Amino acid sequence: MIKKICVYCGSSPGNKPAYASAARELGELMVKNNIELVYGGGNSGLMGVIADTVIGLGGIATGVIPSAFVKHGLCHRSLTKLNIVKTMHERKAKMSALADAFIALPGGLGTLEEITESLTWSQLGIHRKPCGLLNISDYYSKLINFFDLSVSEGFFSPLHRSLIISEQKPGKLLDAIIEFRPEKNIEDWSE
Predict the structure, then answer these.
(1) pTM of the entire structure?
(2) Residue 187 in domain
(3) Tens digit of pLDDT for each residue in 23-46?
Protein backbone atom coordinates (compact mmCIF):
# COMPACT_ATOMS: atom_id res chain seq x y z
CA MET A 1 0.00 0.00 0.00
CA ILE A 2 1.33 3.41 -0.97
CA LYS A 3 1.11 5.82 1.96
CA LYS A 4 4.14 8.05 1.29
CA ILE A 5 5.71 9.05 -2.01
CA CYS A 6 9.12 10.62 -2.31
CA VAL A 7 9.00 13.25 -5.05
CA TYR A 8 12.29 14.33 -6.59
CA CYS A 9 12.12 17.63 -8.48
CA GLY A 10 13.88 20.83 -9.31
CA SER A 11 14.64 23.69 -6.95
CA SER A 12 13.91 25.79 -10.04
CA PRO A 13 10.45 26.08 -11.65
CA GLY A 14 11.87 25.48 -15.14
CA ASN A 15 10.89 27.46 -18.25
CA LYS A 16 7.43 26.02 -18.88
CA PRO A 17 4.34 26.74 -16.76
CA ALA A 18 3.32 23.11 -17.37
CA TYR A 19 5.98 21.94 -14.90
CA ALA A 20 4.56 23.90 -11.94
CA SER A 21 1.04 22.98 -13.02
CA ALA A 22 1.96 19.29 -12.93
CA ALA A 23 3.59 19.69 -9.49
CA ARG A 24 0.39 21.28 -8.18
CA GLU A 25 -1.78 18.59 -9.75
CA LEU A 26 0.34 15.79 -8.33
CA GLY A 27 0.23 17.40 -4.87
CA GLU A 28 -3.55 17.71 -5.09
CA LEU A 29 -3.91 14.07 -6.13
CA MET A 30 -1.65 12.89 -3.35
CA VAL A 31 -3.72 14.71 -0.72
CA LYS A 32 -6.96 13.44 -2.28
CA ASN A 33 -5.60 9.88 -2.03
CA ASN A 34 -4.27 10.36 1.53
CA ILE A 35 -0.68 9.97 0.38
CA GLU A 36 2.00 11.89 2.24
CA LEU A 37 4.74 13.84 0.47
CA VAL A 38 8.38 13.11 1.22
CA TYR A 39 10.79 15.42 -0.58
CA GLY A 40 14.06 17.35 -0.31
CA GLY A 41 12.71 20.05 2.02
CA GLY A 42 13.33 23.03 -0.25
CA ASN A 43 11.25 26.19 -0.47
CA SER A 44 11.81 27.15 -4.11
CA GLY A 45 11.03 25.91 -7.60
CA LEU A 46 8.98 22.78 -8.13
CA MET A 47 9.97 21.63 -4.65
CA GLY A 48 8.22 24.64 -3.15
CA VAL A 49 5.21 24.30 -5.45
CA ILE A 50 4.42 20.71 -4.52
CA ALA A 51 5.06 21.28 -0.80
CA ASP A 52 2.91 24.43 -0.74
CA THR A 53 0.11 22.56 -2.51
CA VAL A 54 0.15 19.61 -0.13
CA ILE A 55 0.35 21.83 2.96
CA GLY A 56 -2.31 24.21 1.64
CA LEU A 57 -4.75 21.32 1.22
CA GLY A 58 -4.11 19.96 4.71
CA GLY A 59 -1.85 17.10 3.63
CA ILE A 60 1.36 15.92 5.25
CA ALA A 61 4.66 17.14 3.80
CA THR A 62 7.92 15.79 5.18
CA GLY A 63 11.18 17.41 4.16
CA VAL A 64 14.65 15.93 4.39
CA ILE A 65 17.38 18.54 3.97
CA PRO A 66 21.11 18.86 4.67
CA SER A 67 22.01 21.33 7.42
CA ALA A 68 24.07 23.44 5.00
CA PHE A 69 20.93 24.17 2.98
CA VAL A 70 19.11 25.24 6.15
CA LYS A 71 21.93 27.68 6.97
CA HIS A 72 21.52 29.25 3.51
CA GLY A 73 17.77 29.76 3.97
CA LEU A 74 16.72 27.12 1.43
CA CYS A 75 14.49 25.20 3.84
CA HIS A 76 10.70 25.28 3.66
CA ARG A 77 9.51 26.63 7.01
CA SER A 78 5.89 25.36 6.99
CA LEU A 79 6.44 21.62 6.65
CA THR A 80 4.55 19.09 8.73
CA LYS A 81 7.83 17.34 9.53
CA LEU A 82 11.44 18.29 8.87
CA ASN A 83 14.46 16.01 9.06
CA ILE A 84 17.80 17.83 9.04
CA VAL A 85 20.71 15.61 8.02
CA LYS A 86 24.44 16.19 7.55
CA THR A 87 25.03 15.03 3.98
CA MET A 88 23.32 14.46 0.65
CA HIS A 89 23.94 10.73 1.08
CA GLU A 90 22.07 10.77 4.39
CA ARG A 91 19.29 12.76 2.73
CA LYS A 92 18.75 10.14 0.01
CA ALA A 93 18.90 7.25 2.47
CA LYS A 94 16.38 8.93 4.79
CA MET A 95 13.97 9.79 1.96
CA SER A 96 14.20 6.21 0.69
CA ALA A 97 13.52 4.80 4.16
CA LEU A 98 10.48 7.06 4.61
CA ALA A 99 8.86 6.45 1.20
CA ASP A 100 6.80 3.67 -0.35
CA ALA A 101 7.40 4.92 -3.91
CA PHE A 102 9.42 7.46 -5.90
CA ILE A 103 8.38 9.97 -8.56
CA ALA A 104 10.63 12.33 -10.49
CA LEU A 105 9.16 15.58 -11.77
CA PRO A 106 11.36 17.67 -14.07
CA GLY A 107 14.59 18.76 -12.45
CA GLY A 108 18.33 18.98 -12.94
CA LEU A 109 21.30 16.80 -12.10
CA GLY A 110 20.22 16.25 -8.49
CA THR A 111 16.80 15.01 -9.57
CA LEU A 112 18.33 12.74 -12.19
CA GLU A 113 20.85 11.34 -9.72
CA GLU A 114 18.16 10.70 -7.09
CA ILE A 115 15.73 8.88 -9.36
CA THR A 116 18.41 6.80 -11.07
CA GLU A 117 19.75 5.71 -7.69
CA SER A 118 16.23 4.66 -6.67
CA LEU A 119 15.89 2.79 -9.96
CA THR A 120 19.26 1.10 -9.44
CA TRP A 121 18.23 -0.01 -5.95
CA SER A 122 15.02 -1.41 -7.45
CA GLN A 123 17.00 -3.21 -10.17
CA LEU A 124 19.23 -4.77 -7.50
CA GLY A 125 16.26 -5.75 -5.35
CA ILE A 126 17.40 -3.52 -2.47
CA HIS A 127 13.82 -2.27 -2.42
CA ARG A 128 10.66 -3.23 -4.29
CA LYS A 129 9.15 0.24 -4.44
CA PRO A 130 7.74 1.68 -7.66
CA CYS A 131 9.74 4.37 -9.46
CA GLY A 132 8.09 6.77 -11.88
CA LEU A 133 8.98 9.58 -14.25
CA LEU A 134 6.40 12.33 -14.76
CA ASN A 135 7.19 13.06 -18.39
CA ILE A 136 5.62 16.52 -18.62
CA SER A 137 6.09 18.13 -22.05
CA ASP A 138 8.34 15.19 -23.02
CA TYR A 139 10.91 16.28 -20.44
CA TYR A 140 12.08 12.69 -19.85
CA SER A 141 11.51 11.31 -23.37
CA LYS A 142 15.22 11.25 -24.27
CA LEU A 143 16.04 9.53 -20.98
CA ILE A 144 13.33 6.96 -21.67
CA ASN A 145 14.79 6.47 -25.15
CA PHE A 146 18.19 5.94 -23.51
CA PHE A 147 16.73 3.22 -21.28
CA ASP A 148 15.26 1.53 -24.37
CA LEU A 149 18.61 1.81 -26.18
CA SER A 150 20.32 0.25 -23.16
CA VAL A 151 17.98 -2.74 -23.49
CA SER A 152 18.58 -3.12 -27.24
CA GLU A 153 22.34 -2.83 -26.74
CA GLY A 154 22.37 -5.49 -24.02
CA PHE A 155 23.24 -3.33 -21.02
CA PHE A 156 19.81 -3.40 -19.37
CA SER A 157 17.40 -6.33 -19.24
CA PRO A 158 13.76 -5.97 -20.36
CA LEU A 159 12.79 -7.13 -16.87
CA HIS A 160 14.67 -4.25 -15.28
CA ARG A 161 13.35 -1.83 -17.90
CA SER A 162 9.83 -2.79 -16.78
CA LEU A 163 10.62 -1.28 -13.36
CA ILE A 164 10.56 2.24 -14.85
CA ILE A 165 7.06 3.68 -14.95
CA SER A 166 6.50 6.78 -17.06
CA GLU A 167 3.40 8.79 -17.83
CA GLN A 168 2.71 12.30 -19.08
CA LYS A 169 -0.20 13.03 -16.73
CA PRO A 170 0.04 13.10 -12.92
CA GLY A 171 -3.17 11.10 -12.44
CA LYS A 172 -2.08 8.32 -14.78
CA LEU A 173 1.33 8.12 -13.14
CA LEU A 174 -0.15 8.04 -9.64
CA ASP A 175 -2.55 5.24 -10.70
CA ALA A 176 0.34 3.26 -12.20
CA ILE A 177 2.43 3.74 -9.03
CA ILE A 178 -0.47 2.54 -6.85
CA GLU A 179 -1.11 -0.48 -9.09
CA PHE A 180 2.58 -1.45 -9.47
CA ARG A 181 3.55 -4.99 -8.47
CA PRO A 182 7.25 -5.88 -8.63
CA GLU A 183 8.42 -8.88 -10.60
CA LYS A 184 9.08 -11.86 -8.36
CA ASN A 185 12.21 -12.94 -10.22
CA ILE A 186 14.27 -9.86 -9.40
CA GLU A 187 17.01 -10.89 -7.00
CA ASP A 188 16.64 -9.58 -3.46
CA TRP A 189 19.93 -8.15 -2.18
CA SER A 190 18.45 -6.68 0.97
CA GLU A 191 19.18 -9.73 3.10
Answers:
(1) 0.94
(2) no
(3) 999 999 999 999 999 999 999 999
